[in-house]
Amino acid sequence: MLTYLVQRFLIMIPTLLVISVITFIIIQLPPGDYLSNQMEELRAQGDTAALEKIDFLRKEYGLDRPLLEQYAIWLGIWPGDNGFSGVLQGDFGWSFEYQRPVNEVVGERMLLSFVLNFHVVLFTYLVAFPIGVYTAIRQYSLSDYTMTLVGYLGLATPNFLLALILLWLTNRYFGVSIGGLMDEQYIGQPWSWAKLVSVMQHLAIPVIVIGTSGTAAMIRRLRANLLDELQKQYVVTARAKGLPRRRALIKYPLRMALNPFIADIGNLLPQMISGSAIVAVVMSLPTSGPMLVHALQSQDQYLAGSFLLFLSCLTVAGMFLSDVALAVLDPRIRMGAEAQR
Amino acid sequence: MTIHAYPFRALLADYGRAVCGLALTVLPLLTEEVVPGLAYALAGLASVFAAFGLRTGLRHAGRLELSATGLRWNGPLAKTIAWNELSSVDLRYFSTRRDRGQGWMQLDLRGSRGTIRLESTLEGFSQVAARCFEVARERQLPLREAALTNLRSLAPEQSINGPRWSTS
Fold first, then answer.
1. C-alpha–C-alpha distance, residues B125 and A335, integer Å
2. Are the Cβ atoms of B32 and A83 closer than 8 angstroms?
3. pLDDT tens column, A191-209
């Protein structure tokens, strides 16, 4: 296992470095930058004081330096005007649009995104898991057909459409707006018990809206995987030898059917932060998804770059966790694969 | 009695991995004022690579003796497992590739006086693994389905029918 961990780490670290380079290049690819665009606007207005400030920021963040140097300063492996001050030192740069450090800008939104998407994942697993198992062991029953229909509906309905329908229905019949993640009086206020309660009250609808399609997809996949396993000879043998039905289900088939879901953990972590951007726009949710989209549009390079780097780190970390879990749960050679070391 | 060792080429690759890993994790720590969370993560990774390097050194200095009475790892941290003390045998397959190809196997042997872990880079690994499973069958030890599948892939001539529904 130690060899496995070492080999996975040795893949992970260069992968993260390459991702950070690619992220930085992608951010820089469009012509100009946020400050150039601002400078053009201010020049047109004749605001010379603001122009001096922009010039100061350009030097401060090394935007007048070569691309490679900018990258090294941003990562914190090359000294800038203020010494080493980059991602490694916890300084993600300055958001030109919000006029605040990136750390401050993303702080609360990251937290809200995490809370929302964590509940979405919890909802998905809690609802999909029992239904998926039940429909597999009761194949072709009335409940199986009903759940299958619901699953197809869930899969076929885009999340943002469901959000729009629910917004309209609640407004039309209950006279309330379900947009946002908290009551208006708590926006921008420090965290308190009342604010937390307000957030939890507003969570239900976004969680259902965002979680429906994932739940439906998970039900379908779990049912299909489990049906495949239940028809294998080892299950028939186990039943023939008198192993109780529940034990014959839980001991091996269910474990095998879960492998694809464990492999999916890698995708869950980044989803916790960036998932559901479109729904967040439609429902006015103050999560990080819309902020990332906006930062990319306005070329707020440090904000967008930090977001992308963070998401990449989460993806790589998630992949690592799922690979380790799979290596522990299913340490079996695939027939045809050769052990070469 | 047969003697088995890890070939130098395989050990060299492992030394290389340990050095690369240490370089990638320790060098960033040398820059100024690394944020604490990241510093702890890098230090944790560095300790894993250091442990790996140490283990490679131990393997470099040791030899495995397979005899009629049991297994003995000679060298630093020597261990012996007599066949009549063997309590558990497992054979696991690891691969870092998506298609699960080009991986390696790890043989875990537990006795009353310790554990011996061997990897498939060991010279004569399939011979050692086959002998251990033979003893496990004689002693009616529970064997995992995955371990038997791996053994069949490693040594097809060794058709071992262990208890299918094991407790592990």
1. 19
2. yes
3. 788 888 888 878 888 888 8
